[in-house]
Design a protein that fits this description.
The strands form 2 sheets. This protein has a 6-stranded mixed beta sheet, with helices on both faces. The protein has a 4-stranded antiparallel beta sheet with strand order 2-1-4-5, with helices on one face. Helix 1 runs antiparallel to helix 8, helix 5 runs antiparallel to helix 7 and helix 14 packs parallel to helix 15. It folds into 3 domains: 311 residues, Up-down Bundle (ABC transporter transmembrane region fold), CATH 1.20.1560.10; 171 residues, P-loop containing nucleotide triphosphate hydrolases (Rossmann fold), CATH 3.40.50.300; 67 residues, no CATH class. With 575 residues, the protein is α/β, with parallel strands linked by helices. The model has no long low-confidence stretch (mean pLDDT 87). Helix content is 65%, strand content 10%. The structure holds adenosine-5'-triphosphate and magnesium ion. The site of adenosine-5'-triphosphate has 11 residues, from helix 9. Adenosine-5'-triphosphate binds next to helix 9.
Amino acid sequence: MHAIWSVIKIGSWAFVLSVIGASIVSLSNFGLSFLIGKITQVSIDQASAGTFDLHLMISLATYLVIALPFIIMGQTLNLVGGQFAEKRLKGKMIDHVLHQSEADIVDGHSGDMMNLLTNDAAVINDFYFQGLSHRAIGPLVAGIASLIVTFSVDIRFGIIAVIIGLTTVLTSTRYSKRIQDGYLSAREAQNSATNHVSEILTNEEFIRLYGIDHKLIAEYDQKNMDYGKKVLNAERNKHKVTGWNESFDLISKIAFLGVGIYFSFTSHFPFSKVMLLLPLQGSISYMFGNLGVSWNYILETATSATRIDDFLTTERENLRMNLPSLQSVAASSKILFDHVSFGYNRDHHILNDVTLDIDAKETVAFVGASGSGKSTLMKLLLGFYNTDSGNIYIDTQDVMQFNLPSVRSQMSYVQQEAPLFNLSIRENIKLGATNYDTVDDSAIIVAAKKAAIHDFIMTLPKGYDTQVGENAGKISGGQRQRIAIARAFMSDAPILIMDEPTASLDSESENLVQLALQNIRKEKTVLIAAHRLRTIQDADTIVVLDHGHITEKGNHRELIEREGHYFNTFQNQHN
Ligand SMILES: Nc1ncnc2c1ncn2[C@@H]1O[C@H](COP(=O)(O)OP(=O)(O)OP(=O)(O)O)[C@@H](O)[C@H]1O
Ligand SMILES: [Mg+2]
């Protein structure tokens, strides 16, 4: 029940609109069957009495004229409702994807998310558009209306219709569970195939290099075959049900005729009434025959809806929007990590009692073995995680006392492999701008020059208008990275965080990035993590992290003189 509520909840008012639309359509269709029956009945009566009356023909024509706009309106409501429900659903889902907590994003499988956004969403959309009206509302509304008319014409025919109908339900429900299970396992097979494709797409270079394409294609074939088999199986059961239902429809029509003839001989029952009931009988058998299938269809939809609802109700990132905005003084962006401890799990600490005072416009470099906690420290400052104990201050203000977007707006961030979007280079750089809507080209060019990427962009035939997506292969790792750095330079944020910006670069690109850093360090407080010490050699302060502790701190000269971890690493890298 909860699952069904989920379907309705997600669609909200748009769902109600589409239900009303579907009901209008089926009521109008019912009216049509009723009138046809009525005309047949009256015609027979008139023919046997030798009279002729145009009245009914005229009322049929009138009904058609009146019903047609209703049918169109109903269908439009159904469609518009479905469309809005779909839009709402997709909007809510993508919004939630972008507002999950960092921990949920890291823990989740991106393939599962894709399935949720594509396959499960498609099931719900089909339900809002077609499924709901064709498989649930339509049969039910027309069936119940027909049953009411049948009972009111002659209670005995109503009873016959219900008895035959219930027999149909008994046989069809035998299959309905199998049909549902069949579709469910088909969907799982489909998800598995989708995951496989997304894995192939993300790893295609590796696949070609290692020549494992045949193996992966064979696996994909196998998965599709499996999917096909499961669909076929579910469809086969569904066709059995359809077959049964059609037989029962025929049986009940014959029963109506037979009983009608019997009644007209034994009592004064006018046989023409049977002609009124026959067209309605179709809707009644269809309703009963589909009860099981419709119910299971709703359950199947509900399975997807539950998955989506579970996802939509996972905890969102706490942006602390009830708190005021942090207004840092750009001229003095000091940072203080005050006895900060943190672990991704409670029992395993990654950072232990880290205290670090960073001055405004100081450039601080973080070095240390892989896994020592450099990125983690940066993620805490970026507000992706909260500390377990200790506080982080920007300009002597505890960041936890302010809303997160305002804290984040103090920083720009360049990752090891900074993402470029499928936009022009100009747009990609512009994305970082604080004043996005008013920023002009000259500012973009200034940033690109500072990031030492302007000259390269000018060598491209389309310059700043080059589309990144089409030219992904023509822009090297180092160039991408410098475009991303230009993007970070577009921001007015007083703090720049760079997590191994040069890790994947050759030494020439590294030199250019270093140059870029020289261009910006006078303007901002810079935190930079790097393995290659050459990149950070002239930082104001170098911090050595070891298992979440600060073990050394000082400038290059001081740390060399100390002859500790930094000295050893430096020796290794330069011999
Ligand atoms: N999301 C996460 N969940 C659980 N553990 C994590 C997560 N991210 C990182 N870790 C662990 O935290 C520790 C510190 O990781 P972190 O990424 O901060 O190291 P790092 O110093 O940046 O290393 P590298 O130089 O390799 O980038 C590592 O042991 C890592 O396995
Ligand atoms: Mg790291």
